[in-house]
Write a structure and sequence with these properties.
Blueprint: E1 14-17, E2 30-37, E3 40-45, E4 49-53, H1 54-57, E5 67-70, E6 74-84, E7 93-94, E8 99-101, H2 105-114, E9 122-131, H3 135-141, E10 145-148, H4 152-155, H5 161-172, H6 175-180
Parallel strand pairs: 5-9
Antiparallel strand pairs: 1-2, 1-10, 2-3, 3-9, 4-5, 6-8, 6-9, 7-8
Protein name: Putative transcriptional regulator
InterPro entries: AlgH-like
Pfam families: DUF179 (PF02622)
């Protein structure tokens, strides 16, 4: 992909790893881009569940046996969250139509405890995926990522982690349908 064909990136875009990517942190991953600016880029892997539950990680949420995802290889001692619907928390950042990132944590805990907030609307992540200034554009130029715009509402939390990567490529159509069916290890074909 030449640099003039790289789409403008913005919060809410999905980065789909190309099927030949060998980096185990990002194999068959779908990354939700939460921030992209001159200082770098920040995203969360949507389809990599961890072995941990939220109740094991956060004492104030010990009542919530909810799955936690690996957001990426950077700072895996930090907790991040996204949610769907209307803005429910102060200081949440809009990352697309009806999708929010972060927000007031005390308000989150209180709302989940009281039942005012539905845990099904939230997805939690340990760590994040980060890129230095211009690093993500360089990776796009090297065909490491496929950018999917305007798919956030339709795909984000609808599919299981195992099917998300493939379903997005299939829905993108054209040559992407071929990539969706590419075997994980072509030598075993």
């Amino acid at each position: 992909m030449s640099i003039d064909k790289i789409p403008d990136l913005s919060a809410g875009d999905l980065l789909i790893s190309e099927p030949f990517l060998l980096d185990e942190n990002f194999t068959r991953s779908v990354v939700l881009l939460c921030e992209h600016n001159a200082e770098g880029s920040f995203g969360l892997i949507l389809n990599k569940p961890s072995i941990l539950k939220l109740s094991e990680l956060v004492e104030s949420l010990s009542f919530l046996d909810k799955e936690v995802y690996v957001g990426g290889p950077v700072e895996q001692n930090t907790l991040h969250y996204i949610y769907q619907g209307d803005q429910k928390l102060e200081k949440s950042i809009s990352i697309g139509l009806n999708m929010w990132w972060g927000g007031n944590f005390e308000e989150l805990v209180s709302g989940l405890k009281s039942g005012e907030l539905d845990p099904a609307d939230f997805r939690f992540f340990l760590g994040y995926s980060g890129w230095a200034p211009d690093q993500l554009v360089e990776e796009l130029n090297e065909n490491t990522w496929i950018v999917c715009k305007d798919a956030l509402d339709e795909f984000t939390l609808q599919y299981t982690p195992d099917e998300l990567w493939r379903k997005i490529l299939l829905n993108m159509g054209g040559d992407f349908k071929l990539l969706a069916n590419y075997p994980l290890d072509p030598r075993l074909n």
